[in-house]
Specification:
Length: about 190
């Protein structure tokens, strides 16, 4: 819609209707009109808070504003505090830390970490010796070949379950089966 040189629209708008407390629309003589009712901010008028879209927030926790008045964030792995976030401090320092943090390097995403009973993140650790013993027991119970541990599908499954897994060869599997046999024989004697 175009305005003339004085900034007035060529199409005059009617004044907004007055609303009284009873809900009647129109020229109410009542003193409680819409201009006398205190205004309430509607959700559409209040600016929305921006979402944290950076991937670094999967590995860091916002701590709010620090003593120096700058926004702070804490690494979920090593618990180091950084100045980051807000409109003046970006997430570049956080993404650089992710590449150097020894604890975060083990995990490709937060889904590979577990939450303990207190709600804190902890790393998922496995005992490699236990894995080898369980693999040997599975080979014996199901009469599998020793090369079972070298099957591509089995390795993919084990890598999915824990990216830190150390794969064994068929010769190691054979040695582990022999150790299981000797330990079970010792128990029976």
């Amino acid at each position: 819609m175009d305005c003339d040189s004085e900034g007035v629209s060529p199409f005059p708008l009617p004044p907004p209707p007055k609303v009284n407390v009873g809900g009647n629309v129109g020229g109410a003589d009542d003193a409680t009109t819409a201009s006398n009712i205190p205004s309430v901010d509607t959700p559409s008028l209040v600016p929305r808070k921006r979402l944290a879209t950076s991937e670094v927030w999967n590995y860091f926790t916002k701590k709010g504003v620090g003593d120096d008045g700058k926004p702070k964030a804490e690494c979920n792995g090593c618990k180091t505090e950084f100045t980051a976030g807000g409109t003046t401090h970006g997430t570049s320092s956080l993404s650089r830390h992710m590449k150097n943090c020894l604890i975060l390097q083990k995990y490709e995403d937060v889904g590979q970490m577990m939450i303990d009973h207190a709600g804190k993140m902890k790393s998922k650790k496995i005992n490699q010796e236990t894995v080898r013993e369980l693999m040997a027991m599975a080979i014996v119970k199901h009469d599998l070949p020793f090369s079972f541990v070298e099957y591509e599908g089995i390795r993919d499954l084990m890598k999915y379950l824990n990216p830190d897994i150390k794969f064994i060869t068929r010769n190691t599997a054979a040695a582990d089966v022999w150790k299981v046999y000797l330990s079970k024989k010792e128990i029976l004697n």
